[in-house]
Amino acid sequence: MAQGIEQIRHRLKVVDVSYKVTKATQLVATAKLKRIGRRIENIKPYYSEIYDAFHQLLPRLENSFYLKNQAIKSRKTLWVIFTSNLGLCGGFNNNINKLVLERLNLDDEILAIGSRGATFFKGHHRNVIEEYNDFNINSTYTDSQELTLNLISKYNNKKVDSIKVAYTKYINTVTFEPAVIDLLPIINRNKDSKKHNIILADFEPDAKTVIETAIPLYVGAIIYGALVESQVAEQASRRLAMENASKNANDMKNNLLISYNRARQGAITQEISEIIGGADAQKAPD
User: Fold this and answer.
1) Hey, which of 43-47, 49-53, 157-161 has the most confident mean pLDDT?
2) Distance (Å, rounded) from C-alpha 86 to C-alpha 108?
């Protein structure tokens, strides 16, 4: 009985430590989520407007290097995949990694944002050509410019036929889902539509030159938007996962405490019975 009590007591200590770790991680994730959540509210209108403006102008362009009228069958696609550097965030990394793995071709290349994605795809023997592991909740638009210029350079030099961005789209604090964006070339999805809202404006020198000059602005907005959304979704996923883990640890702790009290009560009852039995034996006649 004493051995059983010691085992329960040891498990209680282990569960208590786990609870403290998950609860602390939950509080940290909550604080980070509040902090970076304000940023996404500020930048979402910005990159949404840029995205809409470009796609409103696309019907006025023809034969642009950056524009295709329909999705192409790429020989080599560069995948920009946003994952985290840390774990304890539920299915955040696994969901986006599985989505991309299903769509990857053997010749495709991967530019991994976050060590978890790089480790996953290297483990599946995929071609990870570069890693960016320095982004965090404090990263700014300026910090992402090196990545933006790198992507444009690879596309301009025709090292890849297309570039896709895979990230986790933030919907609310409990809902986030993996998403894929066709970054380059820009697909003109309005080419067959007779009712699309074309911007009525004259361009000097022309619309094509204006758009192609502004490509870094477009790519930069999409990349930074995906970065911030992934950061917010990561913290929200971690907070939710740690909240569930803390609740489970607390429930386990309560159940173990009940088992400990029952075992302890049983041990005390057994000791009392042994004492009474010993006393009765001494009173017995010779």
Assistant:
1) 157-161
2) 26
